[in-house]
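Sample intake sheet
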Amino acid sequence: MKITKNTVINLFSYVKNEINQNDTVSMCTHRSSDKARGTYFCEIVLADIVLAWRRTVMASPCDSVTGNLAAVLHGKLDIRLEKIAVPELEENEVLLAMGSVGICGSDLKYWIEGKCGIFTLGQPMVMGHEGSGTVARVGPGVKSLTIGDRVAVEPGVPCRKCALCKKGRYNLCKKICFCATPPDDGNLCRYYKHPADFCFKLPDQVSLDEGALLEPLAVAIYSCRRGNVALGTKVLVCGSGPVGILTMLVAKQMGASKVLITDIDDIRLEMANRMGADLTLKVTSDDSMCLAKQIEVMMGGQPEVSIECSGADLSYATAIHATFPGGCVVTVARHKNSGDIPLNHAATKEVDIKGIFRYANCYPAALDFVTNSGVDLTPLITHHFNLMNTTSAFEAARSRDAHAVKVMIHCNK
């Protein structure tokens, strides 16, 4: 029998009426004359009707999941679109029809250099970790999500069992599987599977593009937490890329009294200014101590917290010189370790240097920020591409002439 929406509505009304009358229904009671038991069986029938309808109507899009296409990195500047298998679901997993996937600075480093920080590409790898999508299938044991739910993907899945996981620092888990970090594949593809408990359901008013932005936003939140940004803190942010601008926004939400953000690009500084930076500084000097003095004058004092998001050794050195004694420097980006970092100055000033590795327990706060802060993050997305044009998307993200801030790839187009 084909179960239509009207069938469900009519049966629902009929069974509900019988329940309200607290009477028996012959098809429900299994020959019982007890009214309470009749009502109980009516409720069971109603639940079965709804479940059957959901399986028939809502699961129908899943039947069309017949092929998968992925952007696979084979080496430096070598991304290929390849057909891959649609993943088979295991316990607690959902299959996602990927919607939006952003390009991150780490993605560019893998594409350009074949490595990022301590991680090196050793075999072909599906790219992408800033993702959002729509649940297309639900695996065994999944109760928190249903077909059709739109979700943001937290891309790092730990073992959940080790001492670090149990302490809540699961981002440092030695067995963590993280999208598009060698050797783990990412989610820049049509269909991707992920544990349900690392998928965060998006409210109706939050778009898939905004869902993808939760990943860099989580980095910004974790960075500010590591720096202990609080009410009245002066904050220096080095680098006006997506993470830098998001860090500026988060710092202000956490009570920072003044935030200065730096960059070498006028377009990015203009965007940072439009989105709420108190002060902006274009870096035109290669003298870190001179830049630190300039920052102190502009801010009316030294920042207690400096957050380095550019990956430039000059910015790292500037942050150390600029930070108030006893303050903190948070290193978000990965540096070239040129040997020009003034660690002795940091030690003499008792400036704490804190690294960050991704984030932990930040997605709920990121989703709350997008939903309730009133801050519109979509201006950060300056370029849009479909999956078939992935290489062009990476070229735009790399090109200074394109003035790209966040490049978004749409896997469903």
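Comment: The first helix runs from residue 5 to 20. The mean pLDDT is 89.
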